[in-house]
Design brief:
Elements lengths: L4 H18 L12 H18 L9 H41 L5 E4 L4 E4 H16 L3 H14 L12 H39 L5 H19 L4 H23 L2
Antiparallel strand pairs: 1-2
Helix pairs in contact: 1-2, 1-3, 3-4, 3-6, 3-7, 3-8, 4-8, 6-7, 6-8
Amino acid sequence: MNFTIDDLEFFLLILVRISGFVFTAPFLSLSNVPRRVQIGLSVFMAIVMFETVKHTTLEYRGVIGYAGLVITELFVGLVMGFIMNGCIQILAFSGQIIDMEIGFSMVNVINPAANISVTVTGNLYTYIVMLMLLATDLYRYIITAIIDAFQFIPVGQAVIRISMSQLMLTFIKDYFVIGFRIVLPMFAATLMVNIVLGVLAKVAPQMNMFVIGMQLKVLMGIIIIALAAKYVPVVADLIYGEMRTMVKQTVSYFAP
């Protein structure tokens, strides 16, 4: 089999798209995943896709035209990985809101996998959902998403539309909606605690409601988190459902 210059150009475009996805997708882009593993996985997937994807004639003019194709393919992979990773970050946002409600907002810890400072509850939810992603083999969906995208977005034919701003607006809206749906039980519990503290402040003004309220909110928050633990699979379904929806919309925006 002859490997021509056209084949090399086609292979590099596949490699660029997959590399952009691997370095931004959830689980694959974690800092504790060695760079050699990420690079090796990208090259291996690119070789497999090069043998399976239907080869098309690339249309471009000169080096600048080919550079434009490379940037476009890189953008496709980056956006798909960023969207999926952003869905996982909803958990960190929800955990931060929960910790603000129960008084844990100052107890920040470093997430060594993502190299960011997160709250305790956000870190807890993120790791639980990530473990569920591994235990249920849903990590295969992450890899399948970029592979199936080649069927709808042929190599060298991706289109960057101005209307993609609507995609980000939709994602931001869903980001807050899902985040607050996760936080809703904690909102209800803290509202009841605040009502009780307000009544006690009127009945017994000599009591220090600030000291009592801090301890009561922490206790209530821990109880609610423990009771809501059995609903974590429901939260995971919300995240995975949003991930599938956003990936489908992303592919539709890039499709020619």
